[in-house]
Design brief:
mainly alpha
Amino acid sequence: MGLFERFLTVWVGLGILVGVGLGLVVPGVFQGIAAIEFAHVNLVVAIFIWVMIYPMMIQIDWHAVKDVGRNPRGLILTLVVNWLIKPFTMAALGVLFFHYLFAPWVDPQSASEYIAGMILLGVAPCTAMVFVWSQLVKGDANYTLVQVSVNDIIMIFAFAPIAAFLLGVTRITVPWETLVLSTVLYVVLPLLAGMATRHLLERRSPHAVADFVGQLKPWSIVGLIATVVLLFGFQAQTIIDKPLVIAMIAVPLMVQTYGIFAISYVAARVLKLPHNVAGPACLIGTSNFFELAVAVAISLFGLNSGAALATVVGVLVEVPVMLSLVAIINRTPHWFIHTHAGQGPLSKGASS
């Protein structure tokens, strides 16, 4: 692994500190950036998110989807958790905490916006960072690509309807056109760009994809850190003024993350998945596509909204929590079936 993956927590932490610091020192700059938008989508944030996720999209091997039938259980686990469990438990936890447990300390309008941000996180399963988590747990790279590929296909069609349904259930009116636009902008177009680029590179040479992604990796790092800096810069004053709110939002997010992981990990063991499939499957279902969630929250509710703040807190919570889950997976390989070296679950004769 490169310097970025090994010190991911450090880079994100520094980005958070820089963002909050700059947001307090030069708030006018961030206000100016916030004004650069089209159809309620902030263009600067969109550019940085694209810079971050484009290299990840190139790595998705769509030809591998046809091989998923050789061992579909890991994929089934991921899809059930992502689309039948996670969005609804996130909404339920949001309502439980902010309409009941935390109600004495949060006004109803803010509570609804915090719930909306949590819902957007719950409906956006991880895409880009999955590859990092998979590497950290020594996951099967090809199977991870299949999981991400299929998951992204479903997200194109399912994200907007499920988000609109859950936001409607929590009595928040959401314009469908904004959700659809955000899905197209942050999922469909990057996927199409990644597919086209990969196709052209594969025609050039067998190693062209890996070489090109390697060249883009520094830019992906820039995109991630710049996105974090901007998001925390936009919310800097709120973070300083309302540390209790940050803590309250973090509580249900952490309960959700560890709860979903526990469900996924137990299910993976019951399904007798290989360890190098079980790890990525559980992490994909547990982590969030926070880039999409943040972008949609900003588009729907504004840069300074409670919904945007909740998704930003999701960024704050996700990295250290996910690294703790990586540690759990790496310490429990004996719970699962092992595949022999060089023999992944999509390979002929692989153990399953």
